[in-house]
Write a structure and sequence with these properties.
alpha/beta; five-stranded mixed sheet; 9 helices; binds adenosine-5'-diphosphate; binds the ligand CC(C)(COP(=O)(O)O)[C@@H](O)C(=O)NCCC(=O)O
């Protein structure tokens, strides 16, 4: 039994693996600077998971860590049973040294599960596209501010724009007559158009490629894509646990 911990820029993503199966997943907040690893096992690990699962996890349960937040990595590295997964451990070809480990793992997990070529779209804190060709070689990708970040920066960096709800259940009017809806319109329609354009460009290069979507805003993105571009949406695979599948591929080699 081992724990997968993916540290993203918004939160911690946990997965509990037993044998080959991912038994449970849950999210928690980042560790605050004043917390030490000794405060940890009880409160943090068991936060938002059932008592039954919590009881299976102990301080000695190995934690495999993939982080894109260096100061969080530092805090977790003081834990005696944490092992950090590094880019060099991922067999993907043509990676560049500063590639995010989350992007590499998600792409590797997706390719191993559904085959290469593969494009992964991660609608997380940042919204990223990461693709590999049929030789399991990184073609490259793109990074833009994620949906939540776009809403937040707009309100934080302007004098009178409000913080608007990110969860847009139904699509706003594209041409809006109020501020809140105008912000929602601007962000959601350009994000969806951007995603559509990146997918079209990828399919030009790799017409047979599968595309997998993950991240905190993935469900929202797919819901709206279904409405606006159904022919694209029906060809997307939604897999929130993609990074964990990538970690499983790497960790099972280590544990064997
Ligand atoms: N319960 C939640 N907590 C935080 N963010 C959430 C939640 N539900 C949806 N989101 C959305 O998910 C985004 C973060 O995606 P996520 O994949 O969790 O981030 P990361 O892996 O970068 O930490 C936020 O910007 C927000 O728009
Ligand atoms: C692009 C990211 C910020 C995405 O992080 P996330 O939204 O998942 O928290 C992260 O993968 C990262 O820091 N990457 C390093 C730069 C790169 O991948 O080229
Ligand atoms: K991520």
């Amino acid at each position: 039994m081992w724990l997968a911990l993916e540290i993203g820029n918004s939160r911690l993503h946990w997965g509990l693996f037993r044998d080959k199966s991912l038994d449970y997943t849950w999210d928690t907040d980042h560790l605050s600077e004043c917390q030490t690893i000794n405060d940890l096992p009880a409160e943090l690990l068991h936060f938002s998971i059932s008592r039954e699962v919590g009881e299976k996890i102990s301080f000695h349960t190995p934690i495999f860590l993939a982080s894109v937040v260096p100061h969080q990595t530092k805090l977790w590295q003081t834990h005696p049973h944490v092992r950090v997964i590094a880019l060099e451990q991922i067999p993907l070809l043509n990676m560049y040294p500063t590639l995010g480990i989350d992007r590499a793992l998600a792409l590797w997990g997706a390719g191993k599960t559904w085959g290469f070529p593969m494009l992964v779209i991660d609608a997380g804190t940042a919204l990223t596209f990461t693709g590999a060709d049929g030789h399991q070689s990184l073609v490259g990708g793109a990074i833009m501010p994620g949906i939540g970040l776009q809403f937040t920066t707009l309100s934080e960096k302007t004098g009178q724009l409000p913080q608007v709800k990110t969860e847009i259940m139904s699509l706003p009017r594209r041409f809006s007559l109020n501020t809140q809806e105008a912000i929602q319109s601007g962000i959601i329609y350009t994000v969806l158009a951007g995603i559509k354009d990146f997918i079209a460009a990828w399919w030009q290069l790799f017409p047979e490629s599968k595309i997998v979507l993950k991240g905190g805003d993935a469900i929202l993105v797919v819901r709206h894509l279904r409405f606006l571009f159904p022919e694209i949406a029906e060809n997307l695979i939604l897999e929130p646990n993609l990074t964990f599948w990538g970690m499983w591929e790497i960790v099972s080699l280590i544990l064997d």
